[in-house]
Design a protein that fits this description.
Two copies of one chain form a homodimer.
Chain A lengths: L8 H13 L15 E3 L7 E9 L11 H18 L3 E12 L3 H18 L3 E10 L4 E9 L16 E4 L18 H10 L4 E4 L4 H12 L2 E5 L15 H10 L6 E5 L1 H9 L8 E7 L3 E6 L2 E4 L11
């Protein structure tokens, strides 16, 4: 914060506009307005930090996407990462490179989308860095949270026999849901307070790709049950069912959580589900490495299918 | 981290390159490689968070500035903010929008500059977000630190009678020093462990402008002593002395610390200075609001003089 010697009047005014809208948070004794923010995490908890940068032309297109939704998503993807660690979010830091022309109006709309979602999850906006330039909009959000009950939920804890769950239906997100998804913060806290979650992540690139992070880091394999994969209503209904399944496995940007628990905990979770939502079991962790998909016709290897292009 | 559904092969390779170079830090139990990082601050301390974004064409020019120095500065400005809070830095998070052509080579050079400075201050690089695009380089660094001995050093604690100090000479930074300055992290820790610092900030826009943040937030005024302002050797020697003084007051990007202590603490500090450096007393906090400069010819009002332009 501060620090660059080139603050401009418009930036100062925008920062004032933001500061007037920032509210008190009991775990943020010092927010916007000093050299840095001070946070007071709950004693005994670890601090969780995640950051994501979104750029005009790559993750959204200014002029085609409502700026409120751009701002909302910039915070939402970070909330999803905190949820994936089983954590409670505390404070967000918003940095942006604003186009010189119309930058202030754009920033205020972005801010509206950010702050509404922040309020939903009692997240303070505690700082950031405001700049204008001749380039396209870049928005970078860092979110700080804390563990709950001292529990570390990593990608590396899945064990053979564990049941694999997701928090909701998959596929078709890019038709619009990816801009307005609800990060699974509450669901994650439900889980952490209810069962021993052995591993968890949020689904951003599609389950066929993302599940491998857990398998690789846990040193295990998995078999997914094709008939159990929940297909989102956003997936085109007219598609053949194999293609619908394919979409649910590979579309990406679902931002549902994928997690594993022991069979005993899994039974318990299904018998006494959290209030308001039902975890969906989609498979089992195996000792045998690799990822498999069981369909009506047998068991086949599940390809990654995530998008990978090349830069030089 | 993760989260955007569009990871590219080159980005994956770059992230692997970075991960192989990240080292263990005792207060960072989980760094790069999960949905978020986990930090373990010292019990009883508050967490300090600051963030700065630097953009090609605004804060540096790719092709004219060594990328190692760009990376170094992106971390250094954040280290300076943590120092200004009297804190100890712990973990940095590096997000960048890399030009598609030559992005990986550029990122590796940036990384070299960042990681060398990080090592100097025992800062872990614990996460970030790597993206490529068709726009110019943007680099956004968030730095997390912690208080020392539970002390909150804010801009708002200066009291009438307090002595005003700086940690080093001022002016002429933009001729090159601004890219390679040493953030005053050690000096800040020296101070916090030695005296009761009533207020502190880092000088980014020039003392004539920055001192007002302390005055405004503390509800006080100040008189600076012209003959005591230390002029950096980077200021053009051929200038008349009033112009040299003007440079020291307004050039900016010094990244020295300005701080206040009570007269008793000030006496003690000068009698028993920290090892290796000498705090320089430049003035006194007054009850009378506003900022004044005492010269040989009398006392005059000190104008802000910082740069302010306009965006719409």
């Amino acid at each position: 914060m501060s620090g660059l010697g080139e603050f401009q009047r418009g930036e100062f005014q925008l920062i004032d506009w933001i500061r007037r809208r920032s509210s008190h948070h009991r775990q943020v004794p010092v927010g916007i307005g000093d050299d840095a923010a001070l946070l007071a995490p709950t004693p005994g908890e670890e601090v969780i930090v995640t950051t994501d940068m979104l750029m005009d032309g790559r993750h959204f297109i200014v002029g085609q996407t409502l700026p409120e939704l751009i701002g909302r998503k910039a915070l939402a993807v970070n909330l999803s990462d905190i949820a994936a660690m089983g954590g409670r979010p505390l404070a967000a830091f918003i940095s942006w490179a604003l186009p010189r022309h119309g930058g202030r109006e754009l920033a205020q709309a972005l801010w509206t989308g950010i702050s509404e979602l922040a309020e939903t999850f009692d997240v303070a906006i505690a700082g950031g860095d405001t700049n204008s330039w001749d380039g396209p909009l870049v928005i970078s959000v860092t979110l700080v949270g804390e563990t709950v009950g001292g529990r570390r939920i990593l990608r590396s804890g899945a064990r053979p026999g564990d049941w694999i769950f997701v928090t909701g239906p998959l596929g078709g997100s890019l038709s619009g849901r990816h801009l307005a998804f609800m990060p699974r913060v509450r669901e994650a806290l439900d889980l952490v307070q209810r069962v021993l979650v052995t591993s968890m992540l949020d689904l951003s690139d599609g389950i066929a790709s993302d599940v491998r992070h857990i398998l690789d880091q846990s040193g295990v394999g998995a078999t997914l049950e094709a008939h159990s994969i929940p297909i989102h209503q956003d997936v085109d209904h007219s598609l053949p069912s194999s293609e619908k399944l394919q979409r649910a496995l590979t579309d990406g940007e679902d931002f549902e959580l994928l997690f594993t628990v022991s069979p005993i905990e899994g039974e318990r979770l299904l018998a006494h589900p959290p209030k308001g939502w039902m975890p969906i079991r989609i498979g089992t962790i195996d000792e045998e490495l690799g990822c498999r998909l069981r369909t009506k016709t047998g068991v086949e290897t599940l390809a990654r299918g995530g998008w990978e292009h090349s830069i030089d």
